[in-house]
Amino acid sequence: MTVRIGTRASKLALTQTRQTADQLAAVGGFPVELVHVRTDGDVLTGPLSQMGGTGVFVAALRDALLRNECDVAVHSLKDLPTGAAVGLSLAATPRRVDVRDVLCARDGLKLADLPAGARVGTGSPRRAAQLRAARADLDIVDIRGNVDTRLGRVPGLPGNATDQVVAGKSCDLDAVVLAAAGLERIGRLDAVTEYLETDVMLPAAGQGSLAIECRTADAPPKQGSTEGSREVLAQALAALDDPDTRLAVTAERALLARLEAGCAAPVGAYAYRKGSMLHLEAVVCAVDGTDTVRDKRATDGLTEVGATLLGIELAEALLAAGAADIADLQAS
């Protein structure tokens, strides 16, 4: 049996899919092959928020699974919509890596050192809002493109292909903000000038995590359920699942779902287990950074149900504090 693993063709997607494929093959003892799937997010141009948000990277992969063109799909979990996909299951959430966002700036600058009016690029309304909250004097520029393309907008970063200034293409920004996890996976952490701690910038729900999705009939059965499979693929997927990561992302995604937050809503969320407690912190920001609602909760209910209830509880607290009044939570 050869297991076919669907992936986008970007450098980051291929890298994290190959790593996952190697792990599945090692655990399951079966050969694997990658199936390249082109998504709307790879083809369309313009702001991501105007194309349906991060879900544009997921739909084609899910369709390929349902058409039996691949057996497994690997996503960045933060790209996965919170709504269930009929016929598919989130079969595994491997151990999470660094959740933080990072600043990649010219001349080794940190966020506090950037001059007034410095041009900082990001395609994320969440990052843009929190940047404006921290530094209202910055000029936040909406950008698209893969990781190398974005880093190429900042002069002098290690690994850049050119030092030529071309507006909208290369060396025309003072800094960009990206996810530490993506840079780590493609070996470009040397471009980081500052790790932005969560008190400055809470990450996207699921950031730093991968989502391995498959058809429900091929997924490991959930506790107390007979639906699913006990074949070798399901066993390999179960072996890759990290329980603490699953609890954390379950809480984060439950919060998003209760807020009814679209892909472009400026919402940050971060959950983590510490000892016998699961902690969750979240922020909802006005897009211009002038107002924020931030709160946190914890639970000793270390089950998926407990994590879901934690996310709902914190979302209710944020809504009671006016989150829906300061942000367009349905933005997509």
Short note summarizing the structure:
With 332 residues, the chain is an alpha/beta fold.
What does this structure look like?
By secondary structure, the chain is an alpha/beta fold. Helices cover 30% and strands 22% of the residues. It is built from 10 helices and 13 strands. A 5-stranded mixed beta sheet has the order 2-1-3-10-4, sandwiched between helices. Helix 8 (243-259) runs parallel beside helix 9 (304-320). The longest helix is centred in the N-terminal third of the chain and has 18 residues, at 11-28. The protein starts with a strand and ends in a 6-residue tail after the last helix. The modification S-(dipyrrolylmethanemethyl)cysteine is found at residue 263. Residues 3-219 form the Porphobilinogen deaminase N-terminal domain.
Which key phrases capture this entry?
332 residues; alpha/beta; five-stranded mixed β-sheet; 10 helices; Porphobilin_deaminase_cofac_BS; porphyrin biosynthesis
Biggest sheet: strand arrangement: 2-1-3-10-4
The rough form would be described as globular
Helix content: 25-40%
Biggest beta-sheet profile = 5 strands, mixed
The overall strand count is 13
Average predicted confidence as pLDDT: 92
CA radius of gyration is 20 Å
Amino- and carboxy-terminal Cα gap: 40 Å
Strand portion, in percent?
15-25%
SSE class: alpha/beta
Instruction: Provide the low-confidence segments as ranges.
Output: 48-54
The helix tally amounts to: 10
* Helix/strand order: EHEHHEEEEHEHEHEEHHEEEHH
Catalytic activity: 4 porphobilinogen + H2O = hydroxymethylbilane + 4 NH4(+)
InterPro entries: HemC (IPR000860), Porphobilin_deaminase_cofac_BS (IPR022419), Porphobilin_deaminase_N (IPR022417), Porphobilinogen_deaminase_C (IPR022418), Porphobilinogen_deaminase_C_sf (IPR036803)
GO molecular function, one term: hydroxymethylbilane synthase activity
Subunit structure: Monomer.
